[in-house]
Amino acid sequence: MASRRTPSSSPREWPLPYPPTLEIIFQSRDIYDDDPSAGGRRVSWETNESAAPLARICRAWEAPATLVLWRSVVVLGMERAEGFLEAVRRHPERAEMVQALVVGLGTEMEDDVQGMLGQEEVSRRLVEVMEACPNLLHLQVRPLHRAVLPRLLAAIRRKEWLRSLVLAPRLAVTGGEPWDTHGNLAEREVVRPTLTALELDVPLYPHRPGPRTPCQPFAAPIPLEVLALRGEVPQDLVRELLKAGGKTLRIVDIYLERAVEVDGMAEAMRELEVVEEVRVLSNPTFEELGRWREVKPPLWDRLLPQFTRAKSLETSATEISSTALRLLPATLESMRVQSFNPRSVFRLDEEMRRVLEDESVDWGLREVTVLDTWDAWGGVEGVREVRRRWEKKGVRWEFVPDKVESGSDE
């Protein structure tokens, strides 16, 4: 692997020592920083746009403020893409300063679901922006036109130092065929062996021309610490990512707009050795519910005893039953169970009553939140009964009726 190129960090002559000046810039940015964060919901970083005025305070501050400003860059739309490319043409060293980058078309173009506003041309320029930055550590690619997909994949593969990759958000396509790249980016090609954080948001029923090749196992472990996957991510890719990152993953956040393939998911999640925060939500389609067959035991009834470091668990009510309450690890502090459909198996039943009355069952659990219908928990009186039973065990129990939140992955 070639050595990473870094820009010069210290000029020859300074009225003030360079390192303290650079630290002043960072501290000033932190105090007055109103910059939005870049990235996704699980993988994010700060933009440095508020450093721009600091470069004009005096000549001594110009270089360190420029370094801070260019370290994290957001390029949305043609005007910014052209401005960036012109700047690095005149000052090539600035492209080497960029460590964090967001590229996207901008709100107006992203909202045009038919792709009739010149998205392809702008997308090509945005890929050029990516290609110009050799030292990227953190990258967010918002949806681009799928015509640039081969070049985009090639650009990502060349980022030898990439640690964070965010392919999000998903476009709210309301009609027509999605024109964006994200459905086609749900493949192992985007997974660099250096990644510590990956967030991928794929539209439902994405456009994938031709048959899809099944995902093969990764050749070596990947040092992933954070994995966030949402939408119609192929479940074989989900499984292989869990296996590849099993020894290092601390945060796992998966929301599937399909039924979980329980056997395969359980096998993959058994590879997780140090996970602390885990979220696995499944929202099956109407077709899947029409041919539903309950899987026994559910996912978490199989897995919970081995998650000895887990502090929080969020799951759908089809993937955990009342029996699993006897299996909770001592480290677990919070649990959230969300119902998406009438097939829930986590409900007020005799087993839950027995567990809550069993004095030998002792947890580190502090709070439980359930999102479901009133009927599933016996109406208002049933909810009150369950709350009293949980509170008797020293656990705060909150019920959120489905009219407020059920059916959402938020």
Poorly predicted sequence stretches spanning 5 or more consecutive residues: 8-18, 21-25, 29-35, 173-177
Radius of gyration: 24 Å
- Major sheet size, sense and barrel closure: 12 strands, parallel
Strand tally is 14
SSE series: HEEHEHHEHHEHEEEHEHEHHEEHEHE
The helical percent reads 25-40%
Read across the widest sheet, the strand sequence of neighbours is 3-4-5-6-7-8-9-10-11-12-13-14
Average pLDDT reading: 83
Q: Total helix count?
A: 13
Q: Kindly report how far apart the N and C termini lie.
A: 40 Å
Give the helix/strand class: alpha/beta
Shape: elongated
Strand content: 15-25%
Describe the structure in brief.
Helix content is 30%, strand content 17%. With 410 residues, it is α/β, with parallel strands linked by helices.
